[in-house]
């Protein structure tokens, strides 16, 4: 692999503004801490990709965010840009456009902060597909809830194809795949992963990544584990 821009689309983990579907059983502050742990895990994975530049498209205020000091330290050495656009689709397209402008000719691979179980080798393997001779123009990682967890593009400007795709729906992944293929791109699918949206998701993903910050944060919340077991 000869280089890639790893795009992390992130929201500052401010209490009451992130992971609200976890409340209850957890409090807004606890939900924000889980989100911060997941983002830190994601940044670790992104920085572990050889030859990658990590671009974080961020929205929100890190000042009142959970684990703000840890996040500020983790963001050093990354390129941080503000998210722009009216909807999530436009923000995704804009983040890839920023990647194209900062690293012309390099592919982009975007992830969010909802799949902290991913790791550097998984991301590196996905990025390598975009460099493979005769390989795909795009890779898409489906999520178990019908969305997607990763979007990689040989030409980041092609993210404009998905700017109008409705997000947070059970068919978002299917619609995204259709939009890419309708634009003439050859698309390969990555392994399916589970997003952290609900209490059950958080417990399941923590079990899949037992050494992650998310797993430690989940283990510190007996109420979360009790509700899921019931």
TrEMBL record:
Protein's recorded name: Glycosyl transferase
């Amino acid at each position: 692999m000869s280089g890639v821009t790893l795009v992390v689309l992130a929201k500052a983990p401010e209490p009451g503004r992130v992971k609200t579907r976890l409340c209850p059983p957890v409090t807004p502050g606890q939900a924000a801490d889980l989100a911060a742990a997941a983002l830190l895990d994601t940044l670790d994975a992104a920085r572990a990709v050889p030859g990658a530049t990590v671009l974080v498209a961020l929205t929100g205020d890190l000042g009142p965010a959970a684990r703000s000091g840890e996040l500020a330290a983790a963001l050093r050495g990354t390129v941080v840009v503000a998210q722009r656009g009216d909807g999530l689709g436009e923000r995704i397209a804009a983040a890839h456009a920023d990647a194209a402008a900062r690293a012309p000719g390099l592919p982009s691979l975007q992830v969010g902060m909802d799949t902290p179980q991913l790791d550097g080798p998984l991301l590196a393997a996905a990025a390598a597909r975009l460099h493979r001779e005769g390989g795909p123009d795009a890779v898409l990682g489906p999520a178990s809830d019908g969305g997607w967890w990763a979007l990689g593009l040989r030409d980041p400007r092609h993210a404009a194809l998905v700017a109008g795709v409705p997000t947070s729906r059970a068919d978002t992944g299917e619609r995204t795949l259709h939009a890419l293929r309708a634009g003439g791109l050859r698309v390969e699918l990555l392994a399916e992963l589970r997003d952290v949206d609900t209490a059950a998701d958080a417990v399941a993903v923590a079990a899949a990544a037992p050494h992650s910050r998310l797993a430690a944060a989940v283990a510190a919340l007996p109420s979360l584990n009790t509700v899921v077991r019931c």
